[in-house]
Amino acid sequence: MDNTDQYLLNFKGYNFDLPVVDVDFLENLEDFEIRDDDVFIVTYPKSGTIWAQQILSLIYFEGHRSRTEIVKTIDRVPFLEYNIHKMDFLERPSPRLFCTHLPYYLVPKGLKSKKAKIIYIYRNPKDVLTSYFHFSNLILAMQATNNMEEFLEKFLDGKVVGSLWFDHIRNWYKYRHDFNILFMMYEEMKMDLRSSVLKISHFLEKELSEEDLEAVVKQATFTNMKSDPKANYNDILRNEVGTRNDGHFMRKGDAQGFMRVKVFRVPLIPWPVH
Ligand SMILES: Nc1ncnc2c1ncn2[C@@H]1O[C@H](COP(=O)(O)O)[C@@H](OP(=O)(O)O)[C@H]1O
Ligand SMILES: CCc1ccc(OS(=O)(=O)O)cc1
Fold it and tell me: Which of 13, 136, 241, 264 is most solvent-facing, going by the fewest CB within 10 Å?
């Protein structure tokens, strides 16, 4: 374990956010007991974790959909390794919902029984990079950088929470057959939220009525989440994690990089030879 950094804890080759991680919990993570009906959202940081937390909260809790219960998404779908509210996971009623940034090789081994469900959300790295640059300058629990070039170097070296973006996504995909896993792309969720919610609810075997589906989609849009104190993390950042400026967890929710990739792809179609 490399603990020389003020912000990063390298545990078994993967970087955790030192100010918010529970090291004792990490030591026993492999044996953390998994229930057959557990559900995990897995992401690399800045790839749509809190979006998925809101979607799952809306799918599973009628009181969340109808706005009759005021429970934050972080308490409905807590981070496994960043348990800032010190929740007793063993006491939680089933089905337990979690989110995590863990790489495939550090997750509890019970997930390999392929009963519990995993939803892996990935986002194009250019938007992850932009989002991550602003986020790490915002929260006190991460090291700030002076400019994008400086952050880009750290990101490409994997010297950030989550380590290398490429390793995370490549290996979760490579070892997908070891798990009961659904891959969702942030950009597709953005393009067609309704179909994405349907895909997720189908995977979770939680079929929604038309009315409930509408309620989930409506409350999971960027605009509605941004103004929803249960889902936007404003409170958590300001009052619990601490911030350096007046930025927000939900900044822009863009899918810029994806659009450019699509444009760049066009010339790859076989060119007519004259
Ligand atoms: N409903 C939604 N629609 C689109 N993007 C969303 C969203 N909810 C959160 N996000 C975006 O997801 C990113 C945060 O990811 P994570 O939760 O994994 O940390 C932020 O991106 P930006 O910083 O680009 O705005 C945030 O705005
Ligand atoms: C639960 C608080 C918290 C801490 C750090 C986070 O950042 S990241 O997702 O690892 O980039 C998010 C939430």
Answer: 264
